[in-house]
Amino acid sequence: MTTCEQIVRKDFALDSEESRMRVAAHHMMRNLTAGMAMITCREPLLMSIATNLKNSFATALRAASPQQREMMEQAAAQLAQDNCELACCFIQKTAVEKAGPEMDKRLATVSTWLVMALAILCSPPVIHLCLFSLIGI
């Protein structure tokens, strides 16, 4: 989130269109958040699903033969593999949805600063009356 905010601040520092900054920040935030969620959650999630399924199967079949235990492990591994992609997509979607309001909060301070800076930079120069008196006008 901080990376996205810093890049957007630098890229849109002098842009008068606040909406372009917001759109760019949200696009970047979505891509970075989705990528980080996919990278960090996949392997631990796969292991967690497989372990929980093995434990559930073992509880259901308390006195299982070695052949049944092997089948339980294979079934748990296959089910975990089949459902991991769906679970990762859900985590990815949830992370992106939660990051949106956070980005808006961070951009609120940036946009306030941007409006003030642009007002100062784009306003016509102020000529004080005391300057007229010094030059004799």
TrEMBL record:
InterPro entries hit by this protein: CNOT1_dom_4, Not1
GO annotation, biological process: negative regulation of translation; nuclear-transcribed mRNA catabolic process, deadenylation-dependent decay
Domain CCR4-NOT transcription complex subunit: 2-109
Gene Ontology terms, MF aspect: molecular adaptor activity
UniProt keyword Repeat present: no
Origin: domain of life: Eukaryota
Record field: transmembrane: 113-135
One Pfam family named in its UniProt record: DUF3819
GO cellular component: CCR4-NOT core complex; P-body
Keywords: Membrane, Transmembrane, Transmembrane helix
Protein name (record): CCR4-NOT transcription complex subunit 1 domain-containing protein
Source species: Micrurus lemniscatus lemniscatus
